[in-house]
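#struct-pred
JK: can someone run the complex with flavin-adenine dinucleotide? inputs below
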Amino acid sequence: MTGTEDKVGDSSRRLLRVVVVGGGAAGFFAAIACAEALRGRGSVTVLERGPQFLQKVKISGGGRCNVTHACFEPKELAKRYPRGGPALIGALHRFQAADTVQWFATRGVELKTEADGRMFPTTDQSQTIIECLTNAARDAGVELRANCGVERVERRGEGGFRLTLAGDASGTGILPVQQSAAHFKRFEGSATALLDRQDACPTIDCDLLLLATGGCRAAAAGSLATSLGHTLEPPVPSLFTFHVTDTRLDGIAGVAVENAVVSVAGTKLKETGPVLVTHWGLSGPAIIRLSAWGARDLHGRNYQFPLRVNWLPGQHFESALALCQRQREKTGAKLVVNAMPGAKTELERRTPVRHGGGHMAGQHAEPEFGAPLPARLWEKFVAAAGISATTQWARLDRAQLHALARQLTEAEFAVTNKSLNKDEFVTCGGVRLAEVDFKTMASRACPGLYFAGELLDIDGITGGFNFQAAWTTGWIAGQAMAESLAAAR
Ligand SMILES: Cc1cc2nc3c(=O)[nH]c(=O)nc-3n(C[C@H](O)[C@H](O)[C@H](O)COP(=O)(O)OP(=O)(O)OC[C@H]3O[C@@H](n4cnc5c(N)ncnc54)[C@H](O)[C@@H]3O)c2cc1C
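RT: done, structure tokens with the ligand placed:
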């Protein structure tokens, strides 16, 4: 069923109402899109449980808000979603990262792109995004009500919905200032006017309902959706770091490797990218991406699994062994801890290698590392290979060379648990996508009901993809609700 086919009840005597539950990124985007399209021919209200709106935007991206990612090809963009990618392709053709950039630029917020493709406001402050969204909502006439948690929702016999608010819902907050007071008048019969304070628990009626309540880490968070006939894919965390207790990582928190391949034995899970040693184990983009693609699988293993790390992408055990053997020939007199294989000498670094057989005498055409490994990590590998700090390369036996090559390319670490990544985490799971029409974000199970944002079973890897999903689904839902109201009028 499309949004325009929804029945929205008898509209002849009053202004039609849209209620958005959830004052986060998706709820705001949907409410703004809907109100801008309606131009006052209906009321749009956002109900937020907390005292403040857009709280996740505030803390996002380390306080800078990674708004989206500089990937402007919908099919490519969709590949960054471990859950929901295929469903999002069509939606991204309608509102993609380039549209996000344009949307904010039109409202005076310029985004900049960092080397890895992440896009932030040029101010580097999430507050810029918050102010932009709240101003846009006010300008469009959206009624914003904080401290308004929705506890229950029922379908009304005549169409539409009745929402029961939490007993302590005061319906006040940071935003219903002067302008909202004007809206109360303008939208006579609006959601606020219908807030029945006689009851112990106030209620609000509406014609169309958008649920944008965010990731349902606790299953109860999806209860509004399930009470209206929807199914939740079981929620589990995504975007986390790994706990590893291992002498190879002891005392070197903060050491980062620019490029490594991390994989989970016995699965197809494999990622390449920066890896960071933390006080608890391993983190960094490659680890966090691995956690996203493996969110369900790793949850099923209770976050206990062997992690394999190849610290030299492009190399494998045999080639690393050859590298170590050449190092033994080349720098036999040097201590192993002081001469990492593949790391070039100062002279080699300054002398460009001529290809086509033009090597200088004595220079090996050995495979180069993308970047040398941090010396402190190399020292750990040497120790883990059973080689003392006073051993010279020339004294290494075959078993020790093998052990070094293994540390470099097939190092295994026992992961024992996970930690949330402080910069960004999301929930894998949520409202089952087959139950939602992605042309409109309308429910296929319940007429008049729409979804947007992380409540859906969509989640992306880090880098701005999660907000992009919120902007895309919110924008489409907002447009569709406005069209539905227009058709019903
Ligand atoms: C620390 C952190 C940093 C992040 N950084 C980034 C980043 O830089 N880039 C990126 O792309 N993604 C980031 N994310 C992910 C991103 O924040 C979310 O994917 C995004 O906020 C989802 O938007 P949403 O509107 O669906 O949900 P939310 O932002 O979670 O908003 C849902 C809102 O609904 C409200 N609500 C819930 N239930 C009710 C109810 N019953 N009644 C009324 N209100 C209710 C909640 O209080 C909440 O305000 C980050 C996440 C975290 C936790």
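RT: quick notes.
The radius of gyration is 28 Å.
The CA atoms of residues 276 and 364 lie 31 Å apart.
JK: thanks, will look after standup
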